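#onboarding

Welcome to the new folks! Below is a worked example of what a typical request in this channel looks like: someone posts a single protein sequence, and someone else replies with the predicted structure as tokens. Don't worry about understanding the tokens yet, we'll cover that in week two.

Example request:
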Amino acid sequence: MLTVTHNETVITYDLADLEAMDAVTIETETIWTEGTQSFTGVALAQVVADLDVTEGVLLASAINDYTVEIPLTDAVEGGPIIAYFNNGAPMSVRDKGPLWIVYPYDSDPKYQAETIYSRSIWQLNRIETRD
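Example response:
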């Protein structure tokens, strides 16, 4: 489901692995959905901490090889999550799943910017660290 690469370390997570981590739920509106949505997943900060990454950027890639750069400074407590549920249900590929990086857009005006929207990659399947 998700492959994370840092230097020579490669970690592959399936849904059960992600669900075993501390779950975070964000209630927010998005520019791609109607009304307030509930997203549940794992904090991007937790995945980064597990790799012991402290600087650089994350290259987040989707199933179709679309890739975005996410500064490591985005991976903070209360920041984006790697969502695996939307409104309590798994997301299909057709509905931007199975994984989607979701920011808490409604929690802070800084998350309501085009740069943040561009980092909100869906159909996520891999992350690679870069210095």
